[in-house]
Design goal:
Blueprint (H helix, E strand, L loop, with lengths): L8 E4 L5 H12 L3 E5 L4 H12 L5 E4 L6 H15 L4 E4 L14 H29 L2 E6 L12 H21 L4 E8 L5 H14 L3 H12 L8 H11 L11 E4 L7
Parallel strand pairs: 1-2, 1-4, 2-3, 4-5, 5-6, 6-7
The chain binds nicotinamide-adenine-dinucleotide.
């Protein structure tokens, strides 16, 4: 028997742009209703909401701030009131800051730990009761190759992403008999706003040009010499929602052009 995701509900944090939006579109294309979240220009968000809805699904937008546990609880409650329960949770919202550790602003450290790691604890603890009740669930944590290996000047990011690998394994074990899988997708560099933004900062931190950052730092680690695409990540997330992936749980799946194999 093949469980289709048509009519199921997927909440994707940070889905107003980049990877989250790519995953939202891929899941909507396969028939899942979408709870969209993230920041941005109000008109642009509404345009994006309509674009996702054009796949013939319902799309609810929540502007919940992932640094605020009470807003996360309210977002899940609102989504459950509309769709009854969340079947697929994609923890994707994330930010980056690049700096030597001794200059790392403590407020940036706190924000990265809150958004890139703790928000997933809050989404998961809120969705699990109804997900368990429904007897089916998929939790996908958008982690990073930086959940598996480190790079200098990204202490908060690497810490949060390594933490997410641990969270993925632990909750996979806790939910293993509930027909729920919990996995981490660990991409290398994906060309999104987040990467574009850090090119400038990395150039400054390392004292090299922006072109050198792209060719000698970012794609240096990626043996395929190609950026990962948001469409590829959307299809991998869809696969993790399929019946074929039922026994993949607690896994951290590198999508990094060979980076972490070296
Ligand atoms: P992006 O900047 O395009 O998207 C980030 C999303 O998170 C946006 O929708 C933004 O509005 C949202 N967001 C930021 N702060 C938020 C907050 N406080 N509350 C709610 N939403 C918030 O970045 P992206 O590249 O698409 O990154 C998505 C995820 O993928 C992140 O977790 C990132 O660490 C991870 N990742 C990215 C890459 C890459 O190369 N781009 C590689 C590996 C992992």
């Amino acid at each position: 028997m093949n469980t289709s995701i048509t009519g199921k509900t997927a909440l994707i944090t940070g889905s107003t742009s980049g990877i989250g939006l790519g995953i939202a579109k891929a899941l909507a294309e396969k028939g899942a209703n979408i709870v969209m979240n993230g920041f941005g220009d109000k008109d642009q968000i509404e345009k994006t909401r309509q674009e996702i809805a054009s796949f013939g699904v319902e799309v609810l937008y929540s502007g919940a701030d992932m640094t605020k546990p009470e807003e996360i609880t309210a977002m899940v409650k609102e989504a459950e009131e509309k769709f009854s329960n969340i079947d697929i949770l994609v923890n994707n919202a994330g930010i980056q800051f690049v700096s030597p550790v001794e200059d790392f602003p403590p407020e940036k450290w706190d924000a990265i730990i809150a958004i890139n790691m703790s928000s997933s604890f809050h989404t998961i603890r809120n969705v699990l009761p109804k997900m368990k009740e429904s007897g089916w669930g998929r939790i996908i944590n958008l982690v990073s190759a930086h959940g598996l290996v480190a790079s200098p000047f990204k202490s908060a990011y690497v810490t949060a992403k390594h933490g997410m690998v641990g969270m993925t394994k632990t909750i996979a074990l806790e939910t293993a008999e509930d027909n729920i899988t919990v996995n981490a997708i660990c991409p290398g560099y994906v060309w999104t706003d987040l990467v574009e933004g850090q090119v400038k900062d990395t150039a400054k931190a390392r004292g090299i040009t922006e072109d050198e950052v792209i060719n000698d730092v970012l794609l240096k680690a990626q043996w395929t010499k190609k950026f990962v695409t948001t469409e590829q990540l959307g299809e991998i997330a869809s696969f993790l929602c399929s019946d074929a992936a039922q026994n993949i749980t607690g896994a951290s799946i590198p999508v990094d052009g060979g980076w972490t194999a070296a």
